[in-house]
Amino acid sequence: MDLLTTLVDKGLRRELPTREEALAVLATSDDDLLDVVAAAGKVRRHWFGRRVKLNYLVNLKSGLCPEDCSYCSQRLGSTTGILKYTWLKPDEASKAAAAGLAGGAKRVCLVASGRGPTDRDVDRVAGTIKAIKDQNEGVEVCACLGLLSDGQAERLREAGADAYNHNLNTSEATYGDITTTHTYEDRVDTVQKAHAAGLSACSGLIAGMGESDADLVDVVFSLRDLDPDSVPVNFLIPVEGTPLAKEWNLTPQRCLRILAMVRFVCPDAEVRIAGGREVHLRTMQPLALNLANSIFLGDYLTTEGQAGQADLDMIADAGFEIEGTDQVTLPEHRASGGGCGTPSAGACGTEAGACASDAATPEPRTDLVTVRRRGAGTDLAPNA
């Protein structure tokens, strides 16, 4: 396909595809899917070889959130029956992180529900970062605490945080349909605060919330403009008790096309398969490793993932290798501040369209959604 040849060539040069090209990736047929994966795989291997970075989530504070994000089981008024607890102490969080690090994780992601941290919360997290780093040489720590106020990103950086995560989630045009208690601009502002403080910015999206192809391209192009080092791609986990519980719109093939599009648009960024891969990619997960160079190990914030050992076996069986703490994730030009938002040439197009999928509506797989009952906030060992 001429499209794929063009996209590979642009990806190897860090040149931005046009919007039409990105939309065309999402519109490819299932018959062409392996060609799409192979093409995006060339770009992935050029910048990241066959390394897979492992990340591990620690939910520092679960539930009890005043925000109304429709996709979230921790939202205001949630009836999902998730674990609810207030802040873990630094030693509890460090113990939880140790399980993931022992399983091969290189980065620990410290997440707390809520609109954003108070200054006291930042102090709490600073103590947790110190506890984890004192016991684990070479570990990366990413904080994800919601909307940041002035000065808080700098304080997290001084405390030893390496990165800050705050996802855009969906396009600016549809954001108000998903969340009303804060704005799309609020999220952009927090990513920019993290950048300005010298933290590695981590920002991604959630696919499967009923968005159009144009919405997906919009949010990924917006991410490219923000220039995060890491782009997590979440696939909606439709948890019963949330407003989006009936949104079962994804097939494994659709997920692979989305990951390929993200790789073409941000060729040299760390593309991470995040929540929902077990639910929507299922047995096609190994193919996704040809597109993404990073995954979460084990469980998520409020739902369970597949066994950590199964992740390790999958990576090895697919011919990939775990990235070590002595290896630098990002290509040299990004690690030195180049960024995927500074392409060598090219510009994005201006027309957006919605491409309807010809696939049948997938059957809900509620059997694959399990509320987390182990790990942080419980007396049971975590999955790692």
Question: Mind explaining what this structure looks like?
Answer:
Strands 1, 2, 3, 4, 5, 6, 7, 8, 9 and 10 form a ten-stranded parallel β-sheet that branches. The protein has 14 helices and ten strands. It has helices at 2-12, 19-26, 33-48, 90-102, 119-135, 152-158, 175-178, 184-196, 213-226, 252-265, 277-280, 285-288, 308-317, 332-335; strands at residues 51-61, 107-112, 140-144, 163-165, 200-202, 205-207, 230-235, 270-273, 294-296, 321-322. α2 packs antiparallel against α10 and α9 (213-226) runs parallel beside α10. The radius of gyration is 19 Å and the shape is globular. With 384 residues, it is α/β, with parallel strands linked by helices.
In short:
By secondary structure, the protein is α/β, with parallel strands linked by helices. It is built from 14 helices and ten strands. Helix 1 packs parallel to helix 3, helix 3 crosses helix 10 and helix 9 (213-226) packs parallel to helix 10.
